[in-house]
Every structure is written in structure tokens, then in C-alpha cells.
């Protein structure tokens, strides 16, 4: 079970919810599970093809995501994933 | 009379009452509103947002702007090589409940169910590739969609830099409509496509009359875009982004001049709007009430609008001015707003 923690800047689009535990082996599955619980939030994080948006950063246990296009990075059983806004986005 | 101001930091609604203009509290404060639309068919207000981090979004209000709800946003299909919508640059209504969204990079999307689902115009997307459109300073902007009022399958679009295109079969095929329009920034001055229109508008009562502000002039067509004549030769100030037509007169239009393409500030440090009543043969300068010293404001391409009663524009420094038709001077509506991207007028009270 991985835990995803969203930046507070996403709270207006999730009804205020920022943290969720999800059963997922990789980041793509994690965001799919997240979107089931918070419908529509994935399109804030990813573009229409599922790639991480240019000015969004995602960290797995403190390490930046490597595959920003297909989100295939693996998750340890108790991983914590932070979704943050990149400073480059303004 | 109501109006909207789409700005870099939110959507503002204006109401004109007997005692003057009133500005409502902003919607989407802090968010870049790149386009808006007042659909007079059902009093819906649409707002296109471009979040710095979270991408483009589309919101709709069913109650004239009191409350908004997010709707589906146009998106590229999976087989378009990873192209992604970066920004919605214009919204328009068509026949039979159609909606259009022009989106960067150079794509046209259509919805037939009030924005619940959107489809890419694939024929135009292919023209983008075949004709080698090139982005201008604002990206590859598809900024104008002008449906024909009597023919549900005919509409024009304008892209910066791609030129003006027309479909006569509901978007199944497109042809360039740029004859007579210069492209001084290309090796060939008058190519079939690749021009840099800034704003395209069709006259609502004379649908074969089209106007376009352009990087290389100000053009008018009287044959549905088949040919264009540069009407800027008689203008002392021929360079402008913004353009508005008079709904009562296809010979009348307003522009908001800028010094030049290389120096994008108000000409001579003074804000001015130019007006023609004779199809661009002659132009008058409307300055009364506008700042005439040390003013360097410009008016973006969608930030000038006209109705039967009012001409309204907003500047890149957040000032908004209105002219009641047949009165001599401009009235200051607001100052110190965020940069105004687009304005729209609605006759509904």
C-alpha cells in the first residue's frame, strides 16, 4: 500500500483531500487509483496522454520520478509519493 | 448591458446600470483566463483557464456567471504523436448547438453536446503539418473561429502563423484563404499560407464581409475571404492586434494601434482607437478621454469589442475604457486590473 500526498495547491480540486493510501505497484497505477477516489485530479497532474505535466514534480520516497511519460517507476510496498508544483510553473 | 473581462489573473464581470459600470468580484482569481464566451442562446458563460502548473481547463456557468463548474477540456487523441493542448485561445458558437475551441498548438476542437465531449478537426490538424505552420511569439495560436450565419457547414479560422482557412463541408477539408495578404517575414511575400493574422472577424449581417488585423496590414474581404485588400494604407497608425466590427454596419470597424511590430507600445506615448465608417478608406482617431502622455499600453487581440451601443476595450496594464456610441469621449471603467486578455459584451441585463 503506497501513500500519495498532494500539494495544498491541488486541494481546491479534490474537495480538500490531500492524502490517500492506494494499492499500487507503480506510479501509473497509483494515479489511476487516485483518480478513482478524486475524480478528475489526474488531468491536473498529467496531460491527456498520461504524461506528467511539465511544471509538476513527483517524488517517490524523496527521489524524483524518472519516467515522466509512461510513469513506470516502481513503488515499494510502503512508498510515499509526493505530488508538488514545480517552481518553473510560476 | 453586461460585459466580461478575461484577464491574466481572473475573470471579471461588468454590469452597466443607469449610474455607470459596476465591477463584480473576480472569478478564478490568480488564474490566467485565456478566453471567455457569453452564449446568448442560454445565458451561459464559458471560461478557459491556463493554470501555470495544472494545464488548461474549461469552466461553464449556467447562471450568467454567478457560479461555474468545470467541464471536459478539449484533448488530443492518442494517435496524434503526443500532442497536448497547451492553452485554449478562443471559444465560439456555431449552428445546431455546436461549440468550437481554438487551442495551442494550432488545433480546432468541436463539441456538439455543450462541452461534454470534444473532437479534434483532423483535416485541419493535417493541414497544419502539410502547410508547415510556424508558431508566432504567442505560440501556434488558433485565435479566431468565424462560423457562417446561414451555412451550418461553413466557417473560417485564423492561425498565427498559418493564415486564414475556410471549410465548406463541416471541417472535412480546408482551403487557405490568404490571397492578397502579405507575409513580409517569409522569403515569398504572398504565399498561399503561412501569414500571420492577429484577429479575424466576420460581419454578422453581411457574412461575405470579413476583416483581419494582421502582422502585415489590416485587411478586408467582401467575397467571403477569397481575396483581401489591405485597408491600412490610409492609416497613419497601421499596426494593431485588436479589431472590432460594428454589428449595424459592415463598413465600420475599430482598431487599437500599436507603434510597430518591433516596438509594441502605444504610438507616441498616447492611447488611441481608430475608427472607419467607409470600409477602411478613411480613419478617424478617437482619443478624447484616453491617456495622451506617457502611456505605453497596448490592447491584445481579443480585448476590443463593440455592440450596437457600446465600444469597450481593456489594456495590458489593466485599464478598461468604454465609449457610448455617438458620444464624443471614452469613459474610464476600471484601472489597475490584471492585464486584460479578452473582452465581450452581452446585451442581456
SSE layout and pairings?
The complex is a heterodimer of chains A (90) and B (349).
Chain A: E1 2-6, E2 19-22, H1 27-37, H2 42-45, E3 56-60, E4 63-64, E5 80-85
Parallel strand pairs in A: 1-5
Antiparallel strand pairs in A: 1-2, 3-4, 3-5
Chain B: E1 2-7, E2 10-17, E3 20-23, E4 32-39, E5 44-51, E6 55-61, E7 69-71, E8 87-93, E9 99-104, E10 107-111, E11 119-120, H1 122-130, E12 141-147, E13 155-160, E14 163-167, E15 175-176, E16 197-202, E17 210-214, E18 217-221, E19 229-230, E20 240-246, E21 249-257, E22 273-276, E23 284-286, E24 304-306, E25 310-314, E26 320-324, E27 331-334, E28 340-346
Textual characterization of the structure:
The complex is a heterodimer of chains A (90) and B (349). Chain A has helices at residues 27-37, 42-45; strands spanning 2-6, 19-22, 56-60, 63-64, 80-85. Chain A is an alpha+beta fold and 90 residues long. Chain A is globular and about 30 Å long. Chain B starts with a strand and ends with a strand. Chain B is an all-beta fold. The model of chain B has no long low-confidence stretch (mean pLDDT 95). Helices cover 3% and strands 43% of the residues of chain B. Chain B has one helix at 122-130, and strands at 2-7, 10-17, 20-23, 32-39, 44-51, 55-61, 69-71, 87-93, 99-104, 107-111, 119-120, 141-147, 155-160, 163-167, 175-176, 197-202, 210-214, 217-221, 229-230, 240-246, 249-257, 273-276, 284-286, 304-306, 310-314, 320-324, 331-334, 340-346. The interface between A and B is medium-sized, with 18 and 13 residues.
Strand arrangement, major sheet of chain B: 3-2-1-28
Structural class of chain B comes to mainly beta
The interface involving the most residues is between: A-B, 18 and 13 residues
Q: Main beta sheet of chain B, described?
A: 4 strands, antiparallel
Strand content of chain A: 15-25%
Question: Using only CA atoms, what is the Rg of chain A?
Answer: 12 Å
- Poorly predicted regions of chain A: none
Lateral arrangement of strands in the main beta sheet of chain A: 2-1-5-3-4
Oligomer: heterodimer
Helix/strand structural class of chain A: alpha+beta
Low-confidence stretches of chain B: none
How many DSSP E strands of chain A? 5
Q: Main β-sheet of chain A, in a few words? A: 5 strands, mixed
Give helix and strand order of chain A, one letter per element, not per position. EEHHEEE
Amino acid at each position: 500500500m503506497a501513500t500519495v500526498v498532494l500539494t495544498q495547491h491541488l486541494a481546491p480540486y479534490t474537495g480538500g483531500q490531500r492524502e490517500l493510501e492506494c494499492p499500487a505497484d507503480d506510479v501509473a497505477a497509483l494515479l489511476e487509483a487516485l483518480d478513482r477516489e478524486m475524480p478528475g485530479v489526474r488531468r491536473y497532474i498529467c496531460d491527456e496522454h498520461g504524461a506528467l505535466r511539465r511544471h509538476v514534480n513527483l517524488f517517490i520516497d524523496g527521489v524524483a520520478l524518472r519516467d515522466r511519460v509512461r510513469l513506470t517507476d516502481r513503488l515499494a510496498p510502503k512508498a510515499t509519493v509526493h505530488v508538488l508544483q514545480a517552481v518553473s510553473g510560476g | 448591458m453586461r460585459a466580461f473581462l478575461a484577464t491574466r489573473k481572473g475573470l471579471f464581470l461588468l454590469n452597466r446600470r443607469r449610474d455607470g459600470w459596476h465591477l463584480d468580484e473576480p472569478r478564478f482569481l490568480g488564474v490566467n483566463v485565456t478566453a471567455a464566451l457569453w452564449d446568448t442562446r442560454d445565458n451561459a458563460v464559458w471560461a478557459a483557464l491556463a493554470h501555470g502548473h495544472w494545464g488548461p481547463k474549461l469552466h461553464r456557468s449556467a447562471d450568467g456567471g454567478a457560479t461555474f463548474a468545470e467541464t471536459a477540456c478539449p484533448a488530443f487523441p492518442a494517435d496524434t504523436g503526443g500532442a497536448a493542448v497547451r492553452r485554449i485561445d478562443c471559444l465560439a458558437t456555431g449552428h445546431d448547438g455546436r461549440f468550437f475551441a481554438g487551442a495551442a498548438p494550432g488545433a480546432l476542437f468541436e463539441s456538439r453536446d455543450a462541452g461534454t465531449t470534444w473532437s479534434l478537426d483532423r483535416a485541419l490538424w493535417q493541414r497544419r503539418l502539410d502547410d508547415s505552420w510556424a508558431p508566432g511569439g504567442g505560440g501556434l495560436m488558433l485565435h479566431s473561429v468565424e462560423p457562417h450565419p446561414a451555412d451550418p457547414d461553413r466557417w473560417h479560422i485564423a492561425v498565427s502563423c498559418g493564415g486564414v482557412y475556410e471549410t465548406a463541408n463541416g471541417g472535412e477539408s480546408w482551403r487557405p484563404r490568404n490571397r492578397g495578404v502579405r507575409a513580409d517575414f517569409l522569403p515569398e511575400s504572398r504565399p498561399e499560407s503561412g501569414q500571420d493574422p492577429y484577429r479575424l472577424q466576420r460581419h454578422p449581417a453581411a457574412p461575405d464581409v470579413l476583416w483581419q488585423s494582421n502582422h502585415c496590414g489590416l485587411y478586408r474581404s467582401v467575397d467571403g475571404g477569397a481575396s483581401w485588400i489591405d485597408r491600412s494604407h490610409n492609416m497613419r497608425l497601421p499596426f494593431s492586434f485588436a479589431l472590432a466590427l460594428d454589428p449595424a454596419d459592415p463598413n465600420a470597424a475599430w482598431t487599437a494601434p500599436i507603434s510597430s511590430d518591433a516596438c509594441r507600445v502605444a504610438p507616441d506615448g498616447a492611447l488611441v482607437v481608430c475608427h472607419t465608417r467607409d470600409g477602411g478608406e478613411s480613419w478617424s482617431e478617437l482619443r478624447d478621454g484616453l491617456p495622451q502622455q506617457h502611456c505605453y499600453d497596448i490592447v491584445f487581440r481579443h480585448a476590443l469589442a463593440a455592440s450596437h451601443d457600446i465600444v469597450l476595450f481593456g489594456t495590458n496594464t489593466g485599464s478598461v475604457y468604454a465609449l457610448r456610441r455617438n458620444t464624443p469621449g471614452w469613459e474610464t471603467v476600471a484601472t489597475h486590473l490584471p492585464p486584460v486578455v479578452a473582452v465581450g459584451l452581452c446585451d442581456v441585463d
